[in-house]
Design a protein that fits this description.
Distance between the termini: 56 Å
Strand order of the largest sheet: 4-11-10-6-7
Helix content: under 10%
InterPro entries: Ig-like_fold
Order of helices and strands: EEEEEEEEEHEE
Structural class: mainly beta
CATH class: Mainly Beta
Protein name: Ig-like domain-containing protein
Shape: elongated
Number of helices: 1
Organism: Rarobacter faecitabidus
Number of domains: 1
GO biological process, one term: carbohydrate metabolic process
CATH architecture: Sandwich
């Protein structure tokens, strides 16, 4: 990036130019919610925050950003090291950004102990990639 300075009164100060290195940071997304929307959840007291192993569910993830930045891209769900689902982020008519991830029964069958679910947003040209830890977990 080239920056140049030319004063209005050239007799007082002479113009100069120099090269300046600028690093622009990408905007960040915020995880608004991650919840089980369909399928078998855990016990009634923990229904909103847990999914049973070997059961198919749908999890809806909502993202928010600064004004003008659209969080396009993909969301991946991980339980430990295992990827349990992926989906692309879509915009609703109301201007909200959601990803609805189908988690198959097969993807959770090898999880042996209670494991927290992470949401990984891949980012795009304007938004940085982020990893979020949720309150959701896979239980036995």
């Amino acid at each position: 990036m080239q920056v140049s300075f030319e004063p209005a009164n050239a007799a007082v100060v002479s113009g100069s130019s120099s090269t300046v290195r600028v690093q622009i940071k990408k905007a960040r997304t915020k995880l608004v919610s991650a919840k089980v929307t369909r399928g078998k959840a855990g016990k009634s007291g923990k229904a909103a925050r847990s999914i049973k192993r070997k059961k198919a569910v749908r999890i809806q993830v909502r993202l928010a950003t600064v004004s003008g930045a659209n969080p396009t891209g993909h969301v991946t769900l991980k339980a430990g090291k295992r990827t349990i689902g992926k989906a692309s982020v879509k915009r609703t008519k109301a201007g909200r950004y959601f990803a609805t991830i189908r988690v198959s029964a097969k993807s959770t069958r090898t999880i042996e102990k209670a494991t927290r679910i992470e949401v990984i947003y891949t980012g795009n040209a304007n938004l940085a990639a982020r990893t979020y830890t949720t309150k959701l977990r896979v239980i036995r």
